[in-house]
């Protein structure tokens, strides 16, 4: 097996969005063919008859602009769409079991059937809160409920190859971290 196989290049588009992961050989080719600008290098070098070269860790392809997929969100207020907006997760404890819809401000207290007053809650949290306000029940929401936008941006998932590489390296390479939008969980 190639001893350098764990070294991969993170490829970014014109807007610095991650679009691909390439093997170390391809990363070097992109650099030498002037198809990409190298933003970060690994400390590892590769020797060849013409010299010793650092392996590119993060590359930016200046003529590539990734088209982000968008999906239309149905704005009609329904139990199903509230679950969908909240990712089928209780907004109090993050459970995904026995989900119900909770009125943040109970109907008995003037709460209405509106996006801003409805959240997904598990039966246990909904029962605990009952007809109380958040303050009275001493409970907090994981996020403020609001009407969804007309469009939702879909995240571009990592490829199986990228996931295998992260497992081989025991996590995300340090050289990539500032270019990824949020820290990824260690596989």
TrEMBL record:
Coiled-coil features, chain-numbered ranges: none
HNH nuclease domain residues: 77-127
Protein name in UniProt: HNH nuclease domain-containing protein
Pfam families for this protein: HNH_5 (PF14279)
CDD domains to which the protein is assigned, alphabetical: HNHc
InterPro entries to which the protein is assigned, alphabetical: HNH_5, HNH_nuc, NA-targeting_endonuclease
Taxonomic source organism: Vitis vinifera
Top-level taxon of the source organism: Eukaryota
